[in-house]
Amino acid sequence: MKSHARQLSHRLFGAFLAGLVLAAGLLPAPAQATSRIKDIADVEGIRDNLLVGYGLVVGLDGTGDTLRNSTFTLQSLTAMLERLGVNTRGSDLKTENVAAVMVTANLPPFAPQGTRIDVTVSALGDAESLQGGTLLVTPLMGADGEVYAVAQGSLAVGGFSAQGEAASITRGVPTNGRIANGAIVEREIEFELATLGKLRLALRNPDITTSNRIATAINTYLGQQAAEAQNPTSVELRMPAGYQGSVIDLLTEVEQLRVQPDMPARVVIDESSGVIVMGQDVRVSTVAIAQGNLTVRVTETPQVSQPNPFAEQGDTVVVPRTEVEVDEGADRQLALVGGSVSLQELVNGLNALGIGPRDMITILQSIKTAGALQAEIEVM
Asked: How far is CA 82 from the centre of its chain?
């Protein structure tokens, strides 16, 4: 019965691969999807700016930093109290209601003074939770060292922790919180977009074909050579001759144009989780595949050995009993995969045969090593 099942499995495998070769030539090509230029490219200069700051969170219910272990929290607390007119130099502070934190935020482009932005607060010391805390005034600086925003407010913490004498529970990350509209922009980053004579579009996924298609679509719409693909990453756009509108009007019209983005054939593998992501243009050339697993199973069945009931000498000991079984997967056979079979069809066939993600990753890497996988493999 077992031999009959193996023969049936081999026949199904061969028939399945033969069907894949047939299907590769009969399936219609998928419809090509187009995307707006605003969804695949950014205007150079219009971007977020990262801000960071160091501050103190107060009002914690005994879950803050231990001042004995976090000297930076003690120094910051002492300096803050001195600025407020309280002298604590030489005092033995033992409060656990204060925590040193790092505050981060994204400054949106063209954000004027007085605009409010969200901030994220993360514990820096050994605080157990920031639940119920309030962030004191914290300057947020950019990469140039200048202060662009000031943050303050009550934290909203999604996680929590609770503990008793013999057990504890933690859900989420209680040492990380967020303040909605918790920072006020104090300095605006100057960028005169409306007065520019030319600008560049930066592709989010660099590709020379996509870059050329964007330039062609813009020139076709404007009726003149105003755009030029410089490299796989950027397209230069000049103010069209005789155009009466501003750069803002030009961008409003250009970003709605639709192009078909192209991408290289690529397979992305995350070996830690077994996730495989592949592009539609990946192809497999003619190749023979054989897959087998070597399984070693070790079973321990210890037994107890005791002396006779009336023996004067002897000890009770545990005698090990080990059983080792080796399965080499000898029922696997070599199968031929014809040319022009897409990787998606191959993976679907391997899934139907019960091959797991780990084995599938090994097979794909082996096909690439053999030169039969017409795609780039990127391992995360």
From this structure: 44
Enumerate the β-bridge partners of residue 127: none
Task: Give the Cβ contact number of residue 21 at 10 Å.
Answer: 16
Question: In 3D, which of 304, 204, 287, 201 has the Cα closest to residue 247?
Answer: 201
Q: Which helix (H) or strand (E) holds 319?
A: strand 317-319
Is the pLDDT confidence value at 134 over 60?
yes
pLDDT, tens only, 135-170: 999 999 999 999 999 999 999 998 766 666 667 777
CA–CA gap between residue 247 and residue 252 (Å, rounded): 8
Q: State which amino acid sits at residue 188.
A: E
Distances (CA, A) of 10 to 20, 289, 342, 364, 376: 15, 13, 22, 21, 31
Residue 328 CA: distances (Å) to CA of 292, 293, 331, 332, 365: 7, 6, 9, 9, 21
Helix (H) or strand (E) holding 153: strand 147-154
User: CA angle at residue 203 from 243 to 214, to 5 degrees?
Assistant: 45
**What does the CA dihedral 165, 166, 170, 174 come to, rounded to 10 degrees?**
30
Element (H, E) at 7: helix 2-26
Q: Which of 46, 176, 189, 187 is CA-nearest to residue 119? A: 176
Gap between the Cα atoms of 17 and 35, Å rounded: 35
pTM: 0.67
pLDDT digits (tens, 9 = 90+) for 310-364: 666 667 777 777 666 655 555 555 455 555 566 666 666 666 666 667 777 787 8
Rounded distance, CA 55 to CA 151, Å? 9
Residue 19 pLDDT more than 50?
Answer: no
